[in-house]
Design brief:
The complex is a heterodimer of chains A (249) and B (126).
Chain A: H1 2-16, H2 22-35, H3 37-45, H4 54-71, H5 80-104, H6 107-127, H7 133-140, H8 144-153, H9 169-174, H10 186-198, H11 201-212, H12 217-224, H13 228-247
Helix pairs in contact in A: 1-2, 3-4, 3-5, 4-5, 6-7, 6-8, 7-8, 10-13, 11-13, 12-13
Chain B: E1 3-9, H1 15-28, H2 33-53, E2 59-66, E3 70-78, H3 90-98, E4 100-107, E5 110-118
Antiparallel strand pairs in B: 1-2, 2-3, 3-5, 4-5
Helix pairs in contact in B: 1-2, 2-3
The chains are: A mainly alpha (249), B alpha+beta (126).
Chain lengths: 249, 126
């Protein structure tokens, strides 16, 4: 891992140099992509189980990686991996938003889901709490049944907003919900149950607060009396174990 | 107190049906979206725990007791043997965090898990 990082840094220095022919530039970019494929794999696997083949997401992710390679500036005081991940994730999310919906969701439902999202955001602001289905029905001028149908079909009860962009990887992880990781899918849970149960008490608490209470890493850190860095580490370790267990299935 | 009953095969595929019904009922009782989500997850966990011990061809019997601003949910299944609840398990931790008055009662070859969820009073912030 360190070798890849060191080599990447070398290659970025080369890219920044003058007198690079197009052919040379292409070779350097290709090697940078090759060296950093692990980032794409990591990002693509965040979207596991959403109905898109992993390979397709990887292809989309590579586009994001290429963008990051082209835009990254060594003079910035940030690691390339930290810089690249949000770009790659953004590309994949965009892919979901643009392509999947057109294919699989009826227009009526798509519009309803969008209206529900907007109304939920507005009402949450106005009321200082999350709205009820009745609140939403009144605001949108539709029946309660319609609202319930719309909420259910978009799994909007969970607080995920696919549209939230961010420059920071921590909030990115923060926006993942139980549904994203299929933690609410009983059949998936069966296969990861041994891993879940073998987690330390701390790891279990962090996972639970994050995915079932939708707390941010900062909030979890405060609640458990540890640093946000520790929460991040616990989370990443647990997720890595879970992902491994899911992939082996 | 009105009651709603649901019986589904004790198989993972049917738990989503259970979640949908739970959400629909809670929505009608004016639970907020956050409270609905908590209840959905709690019922899902209770079902998952039952599924672990459920016998072949067993069912999940689910009863919803609809109060003014509470919902009581009881999930019952028939197990292979006397059920043992692992309170260290992830599922149990989630369940006891998301719902109130959680009880798991092995009763011969039956396992009954019940929980209560309350709606956040609409005047208060969460």
């Amino acid at each position: 891992m360190d070798a890849a990082r060191a080599r990447s840094r070398e290659l970025f220095r080369t890219l920044a140099g003058p007198d690079l022919t197009d052919a040379e530039r292409t070779v350097v970019r290709d090697e940078l992509v090759h060296l950093n494929m692990a980032l794409v794999e990591y990002c693509a696997s965040q979207f596991y189980g959403r109905g898109e083949p992993h390979e397709d997401l990887v292809q989309v992710g590579v586009v994001g990686l290429l963008n990051a390679v082209d835009r990254y500036d060594l003079s910035r005081d940030v690691e390339f991996s930290t810089y690249a991940v949000p770009t790659i994730l953004g590309e994949i999310k965009r892919y979901f938003r643009d392509s999947r919906w057109a294919v699989s969701v009826p227009r009526r439902l798509r519009d309803l889901q969008q209206n529900l999202r907007d109304a939920t955001a507005e009402l949450s602001q106005e009321l200082g709490r999350s709205p009820t289905a009745r609140d939403l029905a009144t605001r949108l001028g539709v029946s309660l049944e319609t609202v319930v149908e719309g909420l259910e079909s978009s799994n909007a009860y969970a607080a995920l907003s696919l549209d939230s962009e961010s420059d920071d990887t921590a909030p990115m992880l923060d926006s993942l919900t139980a549904h994203d990781l299929r933690l609410d899918d009983v059949e998936v849970r069966e296969s990861i149950k041994p891993v879940l149960d073998s987690l330390s008490a701390h790891e279990k608490q962090v996972l639970m607060l994050k995915f079932f209470r939708n707390k941010t890493q900062t909030e979890i850190a405060a609640e458990l009396g540890v640093s946000q860095m520790q929460v991040s580490r616990l989370l990443n370790r647990s997720l890595a174990q879970l992902r491994k267990a899911l992939e082996e299935d | 107190m009105p009651q709603v009953e649901l019986r589904v095969p004790a198989e993972g595929a049917y738990v989503s049906v259970l979640r949908t019904t739970t959400a629909a009922l809670a929505a009608r009782l004016d639970f907020t979206l956050e409270d609905i989500e908590d209840l959905r997850m709690a019922v899902s966990e209770a079902a998952a725990i039952c599924l672990e011990c459920a016998a072949e061809a067993a069912d999940l019997d689910v009863v919803f007791d609809l109060g003014e601003d509470t919902i009581g949910v009881t999930v019952t299944t028939t197990c292979d043997a006397v059920a043992e609840i692992d309170e260290e398990s992830f599922a149990w931790q989630v369940l006891t965090t998301l719902a109130r008055e959680v009880t798991a009662t092995p009763d011969g070859d039956q396992l009954r898990i019940s929980l209560v969820a309350g709606a956040t009073p609409l005047g208060a912030a969460r």
